[in-house]
Amino acid sequence: MQASPCEHDMVSIIIPAYNAEATIRTAIESALRQTCGTLEVIVVDDGSTDATQTVAAKLAQEDGRVRLVAHDGNKGRLEARRTGIQAARGAFCLFVDADDTIDTRTIETCFAQRDANGRAYDIVQFGFDIRYTQPGFDDDRAFTEHYCQPPSDTCFGADITHLIFRQRRAPWSMCGKLFRASILKRAIEYIPAQSLTLAEDACICFIATYFAQSYKGLPEFRGYRYNIDVGGSKAIEHTLDLGHFEQLCNYAGAMECIRAFLAAMPDGEAYCKDFEIVKREHLDGNIIKLFEGMRATDRPRCFQLLCEHWGAADAVARLAQRCWDKPHECLKSLDSRTSTPAAALASKRIGLYHYRLHTGGAEMVTTKLANLWTAMGYEVVLFTDEPTDDGDYPLPAGLERVVLPDFRETTRENYLARAKALASAVEAHRIDTMVYCQWISPILPWDMLLLKSLGVRFLVHTHSTFLSIYAEDHYLETVLCAAYQYADGIITLNRTDREYWSAINPNTWMVQNPLTLAPDRDGRATLEDHRIVWVGRLSLHDKKPTEALRVLAYVRQVVPDATLQFVGADNDPVSAKTIRNMVAELGLEDCVEFVGEVVDVAPYLRNASVYLLTSKYEGYCLTLAESKAAGVPCVMYELPYLSLVEGERGIRAVPQGDAKAAAWAICDLLANKERLQAAGDAAFSHAHELCAYDYEGAWRKIFAAPAGAGDGAREDVGTWTPTDVFAHAMDLAHAKQAEEINWLHGEIERLQRECDEAAHNAEQKAAEAGELASSTTYKVGKAIMAIPCTLKDKLRGLRG
Asked: How far is CA 752 from CA 743, 759, 763, in A?
């Protein structure tokens, strides 16, 4: 007959203690009262300054099963547990905190559990009996009791770790478990000696479950008496000081131990999800304390502590998970204006970000800036979301490029991948300044917070006007305007935008975009044909190509041979279809050409007589600058805040949406060769003046500027007053709302038509069914089938 494990297997009950003179005797005595087995009680005194050691020593003299091991100073809970594990002589170990107790039947109950081969389990986990002696804790009772109870599962191998850490179905505390001592001794070897006072249980338990081969849960046996409001289990005050918060950040040390362990294991990757879950839970605990337990004045420093202990990518990604829809509130709470150290202000290595480098003016300018800054002697690294493409604009030879997870596919759930990629690349390339050209992006606030926490100066390059925010998305209107105040600088392209953004952030500058087409007298447009050119993305909501068709229809009433070329990408099938349908409706098929996307627009401008601009808004309008370089007059819907429009050299501006006025201006130019040539000369002359702009000087000033040194001083911004600008912004916002309302009305009408059609079809089908039921064919068929149906019913009755 096989002997009971109680007769041979010693159990080492380990009690770490620190200043526990009031409770240590009760804990030791509960361990000594076990009903089964050979046992030893190891009390590890972790440098107590009270009578804990004296009480334990007296009990050791009274009962030889008690052993006292004393540290010469306070080393923390991890080292206390390590000392107990290393001193243990038993085949199994069980932990009891110095302010708790265990049921007298604990060892007996655990040893009674056997696997199919009659072998004891490596880990037997039992339930907690939660004890409250002080008022104010009952509200947490249900949660705590649920958290502390294991499932009634039996599992083996990797499933043990998955049960506790991935599925979170059992607590990871060291208490409430009977461990095979060999796996604890093996696990502790992988944990470096350190003063770890928080999450040490999660660390030891994770590694121990990795080595464990069998597990049994006993939720019905609540053998561990957990005194939640005494001793070391007392609640921390709701409002913490910085010292307490920094102590809580030590969770990160335990998580680093687990990470390093998995990195050393051949199959460590199989446990990465378990690790990420336990890491996330502990980091979230710190973040909850930051927002709910810290004074507002301490939160900026708390955020720095989070980044120091957990790493900026992990800290910001979890903040994003919590505050994704309200990043401005998060930035305000953390006072992120102060995150970038002064050392970052002398730019040497510049990161330049735009999500792609083809198909667009902002993309072209981004590559021009990369060329310019490289020529100026700066080290430049490109950051994009799209990989290298054959259509990319030219870049300096050897320029390094980092591809990030696409911002368009980034959500609160997966931002961590982008954060890690961005942080890793920035640190690897030692970037000190990031010029962020994807200026309207829902993840800009999080990328900014991440980069600033890494000490990187963050400059936003606004490639369009602030008016676009009001016209497109009210969420962006709120979030970006609030977020931009925390940037280290905002770069604008016209005085009006500089005026607007400087009211939000004093570090605001105005620059001129690099010219993408140099004025060449030999390459000027001849202005011979009645050809109108329109250049840009065929985007209905902002570039308004349909307005160009309306203008052309009016022009051809006066100038029958006038033609229109659309030069630009039409990537949106819906927009492309709408434009082509309008061409047909207006009868313009023979006089409208769609060139498509091209890298070099110069040939099309030089073959034109008029450049037509119908945009609802622009920030700089690169194509307008290119038309001036080609010596082509421009007729445009008025955008008087643009720097290129100042003096209206070579420009005829008409009110927004006034197609007749635009057509009249074109006809007036085409009707008079001298007037057309004079307008072209004025445009060409202005292009030469633009070439004299000190691009290098402007950018060196920005890269060397200290905080608060923007050039956003108040000045005259042109023909529009600030009131005019904001009135126009509101008009754009209202127009956007009107578009959305019209779309909704259209959807309602479409759905109503579908409902009416479905109802009509249903009535028609019902009528057809009625006709069929009354037909002779149906009646004959019904009569023929009556006999077999009757026989079938009778047979079914006989079987029953």
From this structure: 14, 10, 17
